[in-house]
Amino acid sequence: MGLTMLFDPEPKKRIEDFFNMREELKSFLQSLRKGKLIVVTGLRRYGKTSLILTGLNASGLDYAFLDCRLLPSGMISINDFLNLLEDELNKKSWAKKLLQGVEGVSIGSVGLRFRGGEKNLFLRILEKMEGKVLVLDEAQELRRTSYRLDHLLAYIYDHLNVKIVVSGSQVGLLYRFLRIQEPEAPLFGRPYLEVRLKRLEPQKAEEFLWKGFEQEGIKVNREVVEEAVSRFDGVIGWLTYFGYSYTRNKYSISKILEKASKLSLSELNHALSIYNVGRKRYLEVLKIVASANQLRWSGIKRALEAKEGKIPNNTLSNILKNLMDQGFLEKTNEEYRITDPILKTGILKYL
User: Per residue in 10-31, pLDDT tens?
Assistant: First the structure.
Protein backbone atom coordinates (compact mmCIF):
# COMPACT_ATOMS: atom_id res chain seq x y z
CA MET A 1 0.00 0.00 0.00
CA GLY A 2 1.44 3.38 -1.01
CA LEU A 3 1.82 6.48 1.09
CA THR A 4 -1.38 8.46 1.72
CA MET A 5 -0.79 12.14 1.04
CA LEU A 6 -1.11 14.50 4.02
CA PHE A 7 -3.51 16.70 2.05
CA ASP A 8 -5.81 13.76 1.28
CA PRO A 9 -9.15 14.68 2.95
CA GLU A 10 -9.91 11.08 3.91
CA PRO A 11 -9.09 10.05 7.52
CA LYS A 12 -5.63 8.56 7.92
CA LYS A 13 -5.40 4.88 8.84
CA ARG A 14 -1.66 4.11 9.09
CA ILE A 15 1.11 5.40 11.34
CA GLU A 16 3.20 6.23 8.25
CA ASP A 17 0.51 8.69 7.12
CA PHE A 18 -0.37 10.09 10.54
CA PHE A 19 1.17 13.49 11.26
CA ASN A 20 2.77 14.51 14.55
CA MET A 21 0.24 13.49 17.22
CA ARG A 22 2.58 10.82 18.59
CA GLU A 23 1.81 11.45 22.26
CA GLU A 24 -1.95 11.29 21.67
CA LEU A 25 -1.52 8.12 19.59
CA LYS A 26 0.66 6.55 22.28
CA SER A 27 -1.96 7.45 24.89
CA PHE A 28 -4.72 5.93 22.76
CA LEU A 29 -2.80 2.67 22.23
CA GLN A 30 -2.07 2.42 25.95
CA SER A 31 -5.75 3.02 26.67
CA LEU A 32 -6.72 0.21 24.29
CA ARG A 33 -4.41 -2.14 26.16
CA LYS A 34 -5.45 -1.13 29.66
CA GLY A 35 -9.06 0.03 29.51
CA LYS A 36 -12.53 -1.01 28.44
CA LEU A 37 -13.99 2.45 27.84
CA ILE A 38 -11.95 5.05 25.94
CA VAL A 39 -13.28 8.55 25.29
CA VAL A 40 -11.64 10.56 22.48
CA THR A 41 -12.50 14.25 22.46
CA GLY A 42 -11.56 17.32 20.45
CA LEU A 43 -13.34 19.98 18.45
CA ARG A 44 -14.35 19.55 14.82
CA ARG A 45 -11.49 18.75 12.44
CA TYR A 46 -8.97 18.05 15.20
CA GLY A 47 -8.16 14.59 13.77
CA LYS A 48 -10.14 12.29 16.08
CA THR A 49 -11.19 9.84 13.37
CA SER A 50 -7.66 9.59 12.00
CA LEU A 51 -6.30 8.99 15.49
CA ILE A 52 -8.82 6.23 16.22
CA LEU A 53 -8.42 4.42 12.90
CA THR A 54 -4.63 4.70 12.95
CA GLY A 55 -4.50 3.43 16.51
CA LEU A 56 -6.88 0.54 15.92
CA ASN A 57 -5.01 -0.60 12.82
CA ALA A 58 -1.67 -0.34 14.65
CA SER A 59 -3.09 -2.38 17.55
CA GLY A 60 -4.14 -5.26 15.29
CA LEU A 61 -7.55 -5.44 16.99
CA ASP A 62 -10.70 -6.14 14.97
CA TYR A 63 -13.26 -3.38 15.25
CA ALA A 64 -16.63 -2.10 14.11
CA PHE A 65 -16.57 1.66 13.43
CA LEU A 66 -19.97 3.36 13.53
CA ASP A 67 -20.09 6.97 12.32
CA CYS A 68 -23.15 8.24 14.15
CA ARG A 69 -23.36 11.30 11.87
CA LEU A 70 -24.76 8.92 9.23
CA LEU A 71 -27.87 8.31 11.33
CA PRO A 72 -31.00 10.11 10.10
CA SER A 73 -32.04 13.46 11.55
CA GLY A 74 -34.76 13.57 14.18
CA MET A 75 -35.37 10.73 16.60
CA ILE A 76 -33.26 7.63 15.96
CA SER A 77 -34.97 4.23 16.03
CA ILE A 78 -33.32 0.94 16.91
CA ASN A 79 -33.71 -0.02 13.24
CA ASP A 80 -31.70 3.05 12.19
CA PHE A 81 -28.92 1.99 14.52
CA LEU A 82 -29.02 -1.64 13.38
CA ASN A 83 -28.87 -0.50 9.73
CA LEU A 84 -25.68 1.41 10.52
CA LEU A 85 -24.20 -1.63 12.26
CA GLU A 86 -25.25 -3.91 9.39
CA ASP A 87 -23.51 -1.69 6.82
CA GLU A 88 -20.31 -1.67 8.87
CA LEU A 89 -20.20 -5.41 9.58
CA ASN A 90 -20.74 -6.20 5.91
CA LYS A 91 -17.32 -4.61 5.32
CA LYS A 92 -15.63 -6.95 7.80
CA SER A 93 -14.23 -10.29 6.64
CA TRP A 94 -14.65 -11.78 10.12
CA ALA A 95 -18.31 -10.85 10.61
CA LYS A 96 -20.11 -13.56 8.60
CA LYS A 97 -18.46 -16.46 10.38
CA LEU A 98 -18.85 -14.76 13.73
CA LEU A 99 -22.59 -14.18 13.39
CA GLN A 100 -23.64 -17.55 11.97
CA GLY A 101 -26.60 -18.87 13.88
CA VAL A 102 -27.41 -15.63 15.69
CA GLU A 103 -31.17 -15.19 15.96
CA GLY A 104 -32.28 -12.22 13.84
CA VAL A 105 -29.27 -12.37 11.50
CA SER A 106 -29.51 -13.89 8.02
CA ILE A 107 -26.45 -14.54 5.85
CA GLY A 108 -26.84 -14.80 2.09
CA SER A 109 -25.05 -14.05 -1.16
CA VAL A 110 -25.56 -10.30 -0.65
CA GLY A 111 -24.11 -10.38 2.87
CA LEU A 112 -25.50 -9.95 6.36
CA ARG A 113 -29.05 -8.85 6.96
CA PHE A 114 -30.51 -7.91 10.35
CA ARG A 115 -34.16 -8.40 11.19
CA GLY A 116 -35.88 -5.09 11.89
CA GLY A 117 -37.45 -4.26 15.24
CA GLU A 118 -35.23 -6.60 17.27
CA LYS A 119 -34.35 -4.58 20.37
CA ASN A 120 -32.12 -7.32 21.76
CA LEU A 121 -30.40 -8.09 18.45
CA PHE A 122 -27.68 -5.51 19.05
CA LEU A 123 -26.81 -7.20 22.34
CA ARG A 124 -26.76 -10.66 20.75
CA ILE A 125 -24.35 -9.38 18.09
CA LEU A 126 -22.08 -7.79 20.67
CA GLU A 127 -22.00 -11.01 22.68
CA LYS A 128 -20.35 -12.59 19.62
CA MET A 129 -17.77 -9.81 19.30
CA GLU A 130 -15.49 -11.24 21.98
CA GLY A 131 -12.12 -9.44 22.03
CA LYS A 132 -13.16 -6.83 19.48
CA VAL A 133 -13.68 -3.06 19.65
CA LEU A 134 -16.91 -1.11 19.14
CA VAL A 135 -16.32 2.48 18.03
CA LEU A 136 -19.11 5.05 18.31
CA ASP A 137 -17.81 8.10 16.42
CA GLU A 138 -19.63 11.38 17.15
CA ALA A 139 -21.53 9.48 19.81
CA GLN A 140 -23.38 12.56 21.07
CA GLU A 141 -25.80 11.97 18.17
CA LEU A 142 -27.10 8.95 20.09
CA ARG A 143 -28.86 11.30 22.53
CA ARG A 144 -31.61 11.32 19.91
CA THR A 145 -32.69 7.73 20.50
CA SER A 146 -35.23 6.48 23.02
CA TYR A 147 -33.21 3.25 23.25
CA ARG A 148 -31.16 3.56 26.44
CA LEU A 149 -27.71 3.06 24.99
CA ASP A 150 -25.95 4.23 28.16
CA HIS A 151 -27.55 1.24 29.95
CA LEU A 152 -26.33 -1.01 27.15
CA LEU A 153 -22.81 0.42 27.31
CA ALA A 154 -22.74 -0.22 31.06
CA TYR A 155 -23.84 -3.83 30.44
CA ILE A 156 -21.09 -4.29 27.85
CA TYR A 157 -18.57 -2.81 30.26
CA ASP A 158 -19.56 -5.15 33.09
CA HIS A 159 -20.29 -8.41 31.27
CA LEU A 160 -18.66 -8.58 27.81
CA ASN A 161 -15.06 -8.74 26.66
CA VAL A 162 -15.65 -5.90 24.18
CA LYS A 163 -13.80 -2.60 24.31
CA ILE A 164 -15.77 0.59 23.67
CA VAL A 165 -14.35 3.72 22.05
CA VAL A 166 -16.58 6.78 21.95
CA SER A 167 -15.62 10.06 20.33
CA GLY A 168 -17.24 13.42 19.97
CA SER A 169 -16.54 16.94 18.76
CA GLN A 170 -19.43 18.34 20.78
CA VAL A 171 -17.73 17.46 24.04
CA GLY A 172 -20.36 18.76 26.44
CA LEU A 173 -23.12 16.88 24.60
CA LEU A 174 -20.98 13.74 24.49
CA TYR A 175 -20.59 13.72 28.26
CA ARG A 176 -24.27 14.57 28.66
CA PHE A 177 -25.01 11.38 26.68
CA LEU A 178 -22.55 9.23 28.65
CA ARG A 179 -23.52 10.74 32.06
CA ILE A 180 -20.31 9.31 33.53
CA GLN A 181 -20.27 11.85 36.38
CA GLU A 182 -23.92 11.42 37.41
CA PRO A 183 -24.31 9.15 40.48
CA GLU A 184 -27.65 7.71 39.31
CA ALA A 185 -26.43 6.99 35.76
CA PRO A 186 -25.56 3.48 34.52
CA LEU A 187 -21.91 4.29 33.67
CA PHE A 188 -21.18 6.14 36.90
CA GLY A 189 -18.15 4.76 38.74
CA ARG A 190 -16.77 2.80 35.81
CA PRO A 191 -13.16 3.80 35.14
CA TYR A 192 -12.57 5.30 31.72
CA LEU A 193 -9.61 6.79 29.88
CA GLU A 194 -9.79 10.03 27.92
CA VAL A 195 -7.60 11.11 25.00
CA ARG A 196 -8.04 14.80 24.21
CA LEU A 197 -6.85 16.35 20.94
CA LYS A 198 -5.72 19.95 20.58
CA ARG A 199 -4.74 22.42 17.87
CA LEU A 200 -1.27 22.09 16.36
CA GLU A 201 1.26 24.60 17.63
CA PRO A 202 2.24 27.14 14.91
CA GLN A 203 5.61 25.47 14.33
CA LYS A 204 3.95 22.07 13.86
CA ALA A 205 1.27 23.57 11.60
CA GLU A 206 4.02 25.01 9.38
CA GLU A 207 5.82 21.66 9.38
CA PHE A 208 2.59 19.93 8.32
CA LEU A 209 2.13 22.29 5.37
CA TRP A 210 5.74 22.16 4.22
CA LYS A 211 5.69 18.36 4.33
CA GLY A 212 2.37 18.24 2.48
CA PHE A 213 3.59 20.55 -0.27
CA GLU A 214 6.78 18.48 -0.56
CA GLN A 215 4.69 15.32 -1.06
CA GLU A 216 2.71 17.09 -3.78
CA GLY A 217 5.91 18.26 -5.49
CA ILE A 218 4.84 21.88 -5.27
CA LYS A 219 6.98 24.84 -4.23
CA VAL A 220 5.26 27.70 -2.42
CA ASN A 221 6.40 30.96 -0.90
CA ARG A 222 6.89 31.16 2.84
CA GLU A 223 4.27 33.94 2.92
CA VAL A 224 1.62 31.46 1.72
CA VAL A 225 2.44 29.00 4.50
CA GLU A 226 2.58 31.70 7.17
CA GLU A 227 -0.78 33.17 6.11
CA ALA A 228 -2.41 29.71 6.08
CA VAL A 229 -1.08 28.96 9.58
CA SER A 230 -2.41 32.31 10.79
CA ARG A 231 -5.82 31.90 9.16
CA PHE A 232 -6.46 28.24 10.00
CA ASP A 233 -5.00 28.43 13.52
CA GLY A 234 -3.51 24.95 13.87
CA VAL A 235 -6.76 23.08 13.13
CA ILE A 236 -5.39 20.11 11.21
CA GLY A 237 -8.64 19.46 9.34
CA TRP A 238 -8.71 23.02 8.01
CA LEU A 239 -4.99 22.89 7.16
CA THR A 240 -5.70 19.71 5.19
CA TYR A 241 -8.65 21.39 3.47
CA PHE A 242 -6.41 24.34 2.58
CA GLY A 243 -3.59 22.14 1.26
CA TYR A 244 -5.95 20.03 -0.85
CA SER A 245 -7.77 23.04 -2.31
CA TYR A 246 -4.54 24.94 -2.97
CA THR A 247 -2.69 22.08 -4.67
CA ARG A 248 -5.49 20.18 -6.44
CA ASN A 249 -8.01 22.91 -7.29
CA LYS A 250 -5.51 25.79 -7.55
CA TYR A 251 -7.72 28.05 -5.42
CA SER A 252 -6.33 31.22 -3.85
CA ILE A 253 -6.23 31.53 -0.05
CA SER A 254 -9.12 34.01 -0.14
CA LYS A 255 -11.23 31.60 -2.22
CA ILE A 256 -10.42 28.72 0.13
CA LEU A 257 -11.36 30.84 3.15
CA GLU A 258 -14.66 31.77 1.50
CA LYS A 259 -15.56 28.14 0.75
CA ALA A 260 -14.41 26.90 4.16
CA SER A 261 -16.30 29.57 6.09
CA LYS A 262 -19.49 28.87 4.15
CA LEU A 263 -19.08 25.16 4.86
CA SER A 264 -18.64 25.84 8.58
CA LEU A 265 -21.74 28.07 8.56
CA SER A 266 -23.75 25.30 6.91
CA GLU A 267 -22.66 22.93 9.69
CA LEU A 268 -23.59 25.54 12.30
CA ASN A 269 -27.06 26.06 10.84
CA HIS A 270 -27.65 22.31 10.80
CA ALA A 271 -26.57 21.99 14.44
CA LEU A 272 -28.75 24.90 15.57
CA SER A 273 -31.85 23.68 13.73
CA ILE A 274 -32.85 21.76 16.89
CA TYR A 275 -33.71 25.07 18.56
CA ASN A 276 -36.43 25.91 16.01
CA VAL A 277 -37.61 29.50 16.58
CA GLY A 278 -34.87 30.02 19.19
CA ARG A 279 -32.20 29.54 16.52
CA LYS A 280 -32.18 33.26 15.67
CA ARG A 281 -31.18 34.19 19.22
CA TYR A 282 -28.34 31.64 19.20
CA LEU A 283 -27.03 33.20 15.99
CA GLU A 284 -27.25 36.68 17.53
CA VAL A 285 -25.14 35.56 20.49
CA LEU A 286 -22.53 34.09 18.16
CA LYS A 287 -22.44 37.31 16.09
CA ILE A 288 -21.95 39.36 19.25
CA VAL A 289 -19.07 37.20 20.47
CA ALA A 290 -17.44 37.05 17.03
CA SER A 291 -17.62 40.83 16.59
CA ALA A 292 -16.00 41.56 19.95
CA ASN A 293 -13.46 38.71 19.79
CA GLN A 294 -13.85 37.92 23.51
CA LEU A 295 -16.62 38.99 25.86
CA ARG A 296 -17.73 38.32 29.42
CA TRP A 297 -21.27 37.20 30.22
CA SER A 298 -22.34 40.72 31.19
CA GLY A 299 -21.07 42.20 27.92
CA ILE A 300 -22.93 39.60 25.87
CA LYS A 301 -26.12 40.31 27.84
CA ARG A 302 -25.86 44.07 27.28
CA ALA A 303 -25.28 43.65 23.55
CA LEU A 304 -28.10 41.11 23.16
CA GLU A 305 -30.58 43.24 25.10
CA ALA A 306 -29.64 46.26 22.98
CA LYS A 307 -30.93 44.28 19.98
CA GLU A 308 -33.82 42.30 21.46
CA GLY A 309 -34.89 43.95 24.71
CA LYS A 310 -34.86 42.37 28.17
CA ILE A 311 -33.49 38.81 28.32
CA PRO A 312 -33.82 36.64 31.46
CA ASN A 313 -30.44 35.71 32.95
CA ASN A 314 -31.16 31.98 32.86
CA THR A 315 -32.12 32.17 29.16
CA LEU A 316 -28.75 33.63 28.21
CA SER A 317 -26.90 31.20 30.48
CA ASN A 318 -28.64 28.26 28.81
CA ILE A 319 -27.78 29.58 25.34
CA LEU A 320 -24.10 29.96 26.26
CA LYS A 321 -23.98 26.53 27.89
CA ASN A 322 -25.55 24.88 24.86
CA LEU A 323 -23.17 26.63 22.47
CA MET A 324 -20.21 25.47 24.58
CA ASP A 325 -21.59 21.92 24.76
CA GLN A 326 -21.84 21.90 20.97
CA GLY A 327 -18.26 23.13 20.63
CA PHE A 328 -19.02 26.51 19.06
CA LEU A 329 -17.95 28.61 22.05
CA GLU A 330 -15.28 28.21 24.69
CA LYS A 331 -14.75 30.12 27.91
CA THR A 332 -11.37 31.10 29.30
CA ASN A 333 -10.94 33.38 32.34
CA GLU A 334 -14.68 34.16 32.23
CA GLU A 335 -14.43 35.34 28.60
CA TYR A 336 -16.22 33.68 25.69
CA ARG A 337 -14.76 33.24 22.21
CA ILE A 338 -15.61 31.37 18.99
CA THR A 339 -13.63 28.12 18.98
CA ASP A 340 -13.15 27.77 15.22
CA PRO A 341 -11.37 30.61 13.36
CA ILE A 342 -13.05 29.68 10.09
CA LEU A 343 -16.50 29.70 11.67
CA LYS A 344 -15.72 33.11 13.13
CA THR A 345 -14.84 34.38 9.65
CA GLY A 346 -18.09 32.94 8.28
CA ILE A 347 -20.17 34.55 11.04
CA LEU A 348 -18.60 37.97 10.51
CA LYS A 349 -18.80 37.90 6.70
CA TYR A 350 -21.97 35.97 5.87
CA LEU A 351 -24.40 36.21 8.79
Answer: 999 988 888 878 899 999 999 9
